[in-house]
């Protein structure tokens, strides 16, 4: 009994750290609010009579500075995602205070960023980790960059997202492996029939088994989970990169027909794009969902695991292969004749493929330019590359 109570108190502490309120935690564990308050005080998380949900009290000037910093980073974020960006920093302010700060710092944004609710079909998943959705985003495909993401269907937690200069199956698998390093292996994954997904299929079938739908192929009417993230990502991040790259095309000599130009673009900017994606992942996982009583994806993942049981969460008996050679081959019959080959990015080869010394020289030349503007970085990169490959 003592062990059980100790485990309960620890779980309550974790719930408190997720910034859930007393009523939410009590409902989650099926106990009274008084019991929750006692457990929190016993854990020395707070003093008696303090509010359970921790709100950050900031002077208007400090809150305005933080909001301006976030909006300077990504100018198109709306109120909910700005709140998510603050919570990703451990700052949770009342909604009214955040709204007033945005109005003070960006008074013209109110009508531009008004909410326009979209009607969506009802969507039900058994619990966290029951089903992940996987998809590719091709907004930057003409510049040789593809983005892949995995999102939990129940909680909307974005488990993994990454931009890459190729669309190979090994790259998609590496995104998935990065996701399951942070979150448990899901019970099932849903994706399309693209060839780039075959190694994820092999991994899921090796870990979760054949003949049970470990990887569900085909388009899904329920893929709205990741499509909504793509919509917000394009608005908040990808459109800015599209604008930069098109400006380089129009004004500064970028020619996407030249493979070395596409390679250089990725060499110069891919790391920055992935930093933006990591930032967006943090913001997304901490933004409040209107349809889920203003809980965040992180809160839903944790509380749903308590209420419904996470599929495969904390399953220490799972054997996760380190490679697809250990996993074996995917069941190619599941793809049938509908397997699709997306845009081939394999042709973007480095002009320094047989000249490692030239690549090192380029890296040295660009050391002083990594924090320069996109235009200055590009112009210096082109000059250096052309000189080194002559």
Automatic annotation (TrEMBL):
Cited Gene3D superfamilies: Ribonuclease H-like superfamily/Ribonuclease H
MF (Gene Ontology): RNA binding
GO cellular component terms, semicolon-separated: nucleus
A GO biological process held by the record: DNA integration
Pfam families associated with the record: rva_4 (PF24764)
Keywords: RNA-binding
Integrase catalytic domain mapped to chain residues: 124-305
Name this protein carries in UniProt: BQ5605_C032g11065 protein
Source organism: Microbotryum silenes-dioicae
Taxonomic lineage: Eukaryota, Fungi, Dikarya, Basidiomycota, Pucciniomycotina
